[in-house]
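Re: that chain you flagged

S.,

Sorry for the slow reply, it's been a week of failed gels. I finally had a moment to sit down with the sequence you sent. For the record, here it is as I used it:
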Amino acid sequence: MQINLLTKTLILISAGLLFIGVLMDVGHTAEPASCGMASWYQHTSRTASGEMADPDSLAAAHRKFEFGTKVRVQNMRNGKTVIVRINDRGPFTKGRILDVTRAAARKLGFIKAGTAKICLETIP
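Prediction finished late last night. Pasting the C-alpha cells below so you have them in one place:
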C-alpha cells in the first residue's frame, strides 16, 4: 500500500501540531505560581464583583484575576494552604499581591501577624 504525498503531508502536520500542543500544554489555563506578600481584611461591604463581602468565606482580592477564579494560596512560613475564590479588587497597598478574608487568613495561620509571604497559583 503506497501513501500519497498529500497523506504524508497531513500526517506530518498533525504530528507537528500534536507535538506543539504538548509543548505549549494546550488547554491548561493555570497561571504559573507567583509569590509575594498577602494581607487579610474583614470587609462587610459590597465587593468589586457586586456581592456582599463575607469575612467567614474563603475569598480574596486580586488586582487582575477574573472574578470567580480559584486560587491556591500557600503560606511560605508554615506551609499551610487554602483555596480561595477571587471576588474583589485589591490589594491597594504597595508590595502586596493578595488580600484574603479573615477565614482564609485563619486557615493560612497569619491572623495575628496580619501579613504573610505567600505563593499563589490559579486552578484551571
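What I noticed first: The chain has a mean pLDDT of 85.

Talk soon,
D.
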